[in-house]
Amino acid sequence: MVYKYSNSIKKIIKSAFWVILISCAFVHIYTLNLYPLPWFDETYMASIAKEFYETGKFTKRIAYHAHEQKEEFIYGPFYFLISSLVFKVFGFGMTQFRSIAFISGILVQISAIVFLKKFVKQKSTILLMSIFFMLDPFYFRCMHEGRMDLTASFLMLSGTILFLSAIPKKHYFYFLISGFLCSFGLLTTPRAGFLLLPLMLFLGFFTIRDLKKNWHYPIIWIAPIILLYSSWIFYAFGDFGNFINFYQEKIGYTRLPGRPFYIPKQQFPLIITTIIIVAISIIKFGKSYFNSLTLISISSILLFYIIVYDQGPYASFIIPFYYLLIFYSGKRIFTKKYEHQSEIHSQALL
Fold it and tell me: Distance between CA atoms of 236 and 72, rounded to whole angstroms?
C-alpha cells in the first residue's frame, strides 16, 4: 500500500502553494531593484553586456585599472547576447538586467518540478518541493543578482531532462535539442561544464550496452556542443592552443589547484537534511535507490565541490539537485510499497 496524503492535508498544501507563489511573486517584483545593493560582479557583468549591446564587443568600462581594457572572453557570448536583446527591447537599467536572473531562476524551479514529476506522481509532494524551493533564502538572493549562473543552470537542467527522455525512447530530436541546450549553457559560462560529466557517463554506458545500435546517439548529442563551442574558441582565441593557454592561467577559478571549500551558511540546513535523508534511503533501499535522478543529483553535487571554487553564488548550480534528492527520497521513505512504474525509464538507463 502506498502512503497517501489525506484530503485535508492536500487542501492545506495546495492553498499554501498558491499563497506562497503569489506572495513570493509580489516580493520578488517589488524588491528586484532594491535588494541586494549592486556589487562588483553585477556592475562588471552589466558593463560587458552594455558594451556588447552598443558595440558588439565584450569589453567593459569599469575596473579599468584592475583589469586590462581588453575583451572579456572568460565566460561566453550567450548571456551577453540575451542581455543585449533585453536592453534593446526594454532599455538599460538595474531591473532590466536583473530580470534575466529572475526569469532564469523561475525556469530552473519549473525544470526541477518537471524532473521530479518523472519519478514522483503525487501532486502534493511536488507542490511541497515547489514551496520549499520558492522560500529558499539563498536562491531568492541569487534570483536578484545580475549574474549568468541561473541562466546556465536552466539551460543545463533542461538539457538534462531532454537527455533522460531521449535515452529510453532513442529519440534523435531529443538528443539533438539536449545537445544544443547544453552547449548554450556552456557558452553562458564554462563553469557549468561540470554538469556535463554525469551525462557523458550515462551516455557511455548506454552506448556500450548495444554499440551496433547506439553508436550514433553520442555523436548527435555531442555534435552541437563541439561545433558551437569550437566556433566560440576560434572567434575569441584564434585556435585551441590559445584557448588552453588562456584557461591554464585562469585555473584559479576552479578548485583544482587545491583551493579551500566555501559553503554559505544559509545552505547548512539544506545540506545536512539532504545527507541524512539520502543516507537513510541508501540504508533502507540499497541499490534500488539509485536511478537517473539520484545518480545525476549526487554526482553533480560531488563534482561541484571537487571542481568548482565557490566564492558564494556558484552553489546556485546545485541547489535544485538538493531539493530533488530530499523530496524524491522522502517520497520513497514514506512509501510502504515502491511505485515501480515511476522508474521504468530509469531502469532502461541502468
Answer: 9
- End-to-end C-alpha distance for the chain, whole angstroms: 26
Q: Which helix (H) or strand (E) holds 344?
A: helix 344-349
Q: How far is CA 215 from CA 165, 222, 286, in A?
A: 18, 12, 31
Task: Find out whether 49 and 83 touch, Cβ atoms under 8 Å.
Answer: yes
Residue 215 DSSP class = T
Q: What is the mean pLDDT of residues 61-71?
A: 66
The radius of gyration of the chain from alpha carbons, rounded to an integer in Å, stands at: 21
How far lies 14's CA from each of 7, 107, 140, 328, in Å? 10, 20, 21, 19
Q: For all residues of the chain together, what is the average pLDDT?
A: 87
Tens digits of per-residue pLDDT, 136-156? 999 999 999 989 999 999 999
Number of Cβ within 10 Å of residue 269's Cβ equals 10
In the predicted structure, residue 84 carries a pLDDT above the cut 50: yes
Distance CA 120, CA 139 (A): 23
Give, as one character, the DSSP assignment of residue 195: G
The residues near 145 (Cβ < 8 Å, ≥ 6 apart) are: 36, 39, 41, 42, 98, 101, 313
Largest CA-CA distance found in the chain, in angstroms, rounded? 67
Q: Which residues have a Cβ under 8 Å from the Cβ of 79 and sit 6 or more positions away?
A: 45, 49, 100, 148, 151, 152, 188, 189
What gap in Å lies between CA 38 and CA 36, rounded to an integer?
6
Cell for 39? 556589487
Dist. CA 200–CA 216, nearest whole Å:
14
State how far the Cα of 95 lies from the Cα of 37, in Å rounded to an integer. 12
Sign (positive or negative) of CA dihedral 260, 67, 79, 137: positive
What pLDDT does 306 receive? 87
pLDDT digits (tens, 9 = 90+) for 163-206: 999 888 778 899 999 999 999 999 999 999 999 999 999 888 88
The residue with cell 523530496 is 327
DSSP 74: S
Q: How many CB atoms lie within 10 A of CB 140?
A: 17
